[in-house]
Protein: Circularly permuted type 2 ATP-grasp protein
Organism: Erythrobacter mangrovi
Amino acid sequence: MTGNGRYFDEMHNADGSVREAYSDYCRWFHEQKTSLLKRKHAEAETNFRKTGITFNVYGQDEAEERLIPFDMVPRVITANEWRRLTRGIEQRVRALNAFMHDLYHRQEIIRAGRIPERLFRDNAAWLPNMVGFRPPGGVYTHIVGIDLVRTGPDEFFVLEDNARTPSGVSYMLENRETMMAMFPELFMRMGIESVSDYPRRLAKSLAACAPSCSDGKPVVAVLTPGIYNSAYFEHAFLADQMGAELVEGTDLRVVDGRVAMRTTSGYQPVDVIYRRVDDDYLDPMTFNEDSVLGVPGIMDVYRAGKITIANAPGTGVADDKAIYSFMPEIVEFYTGEKPLLPNVETHRCAEEESCKYVLDNLAELVVKEVHGSGGYGMLIGPTSSKKTIEEFRKKIIARPENYIAQPTLALSTCPIFTRQGLAPRHVDLRPFVLVSPDRIDITPGGLTRVALKPGSLVVNSSQGGGTKDTWVLKD
């Protein structure tokens, strides 16, 4: 199995030979009987069903709970490649935190004319409540997911920054556990960096961001919207793995100026809340008064410096795709360095000339809503019908500031296991980053998402994609 030449094949060279990163894996693969591999493939799906590794899909007529497809062929990244990526990721995350602080304080980057004021003035994710406030430890984005795509041997691009509530880390961990259970001999044969200690590192990183009022070991809780949320499995999984309490808004209340959770022995103060509830639902006294998912008064406690909320309210500004288009300027402004990881070329429809270019070339571009996520609200021009393209044209003309456009990238491919054998499919990568006051910790690997349909460039699980284990090789 080799690529068709149009895309970078991560397993094979152009002449069909196996790249060094995959050499040990390929030798092992060809030693296996096909019947055994097929049985293992079926076992993996059964395991995921038993474990309950599912996600919810909203607005669908069919069953709302779905299994995330898992592919048992790992994605392999060399130690050298990973070192280059981590340097770029760390630089970007450092800049994102500095940007968040500046945006809610002196706004030097706007005064310097490096980004336009309209990007946050008209942005619902920018919260006036955070102006002038410095979170405990000075950390805004405690957990970050940086989405990367690859187009060549040394060509990695940042596709998105997820600085609000990045999801998917539980699938990274379960993918690894499943692979180790099915193929322990592979892990004996190959030196692969571990990801299994992520929950411990997450707990340690969150505890390091606890406010100064905490006594003894900081108490950490995971705040979930509840069982009907699309990522509820992950909320419960991480709370369990960290040894933290999984709570809903009704389990929390403000007691004596602290946020406290209900226990069998009364209400116990909480120091850090890893929240998986959106800003708008966090505090009905500050944001959406109809919310029953958050905690009345939590923002007052937060601004008094008596609880840490991870990630900080207002970090959704950094998820905005219009802000993303200025990340090269943001990185350079706060680090004094050129970005080590480039952005994908991006056209801002809010700018007249760019909008004209986009409208003239819709059939060749990928168009995204600036606040969109999960593969929704986007146009992939080369695979869309003329009718769909014209519908998008009307949307862009009506609200140009709501869209950005990018070229259709030649995403790299990795093999997946099919009934006919190995077959190439397009992939992206979401490494997970933990930020504490004194360090940035990047888990060696991340979540590889894979488009399971031949030719598809959409890897999101909500759009029919799957996941696979990501192996970073040791030196």
Q: What stands out?
A: The chain is about 30% helix and 25% strand. The CA atoms of residues 316 and 469 lie 28 Å apart. The longest helix spans residues 79-103.
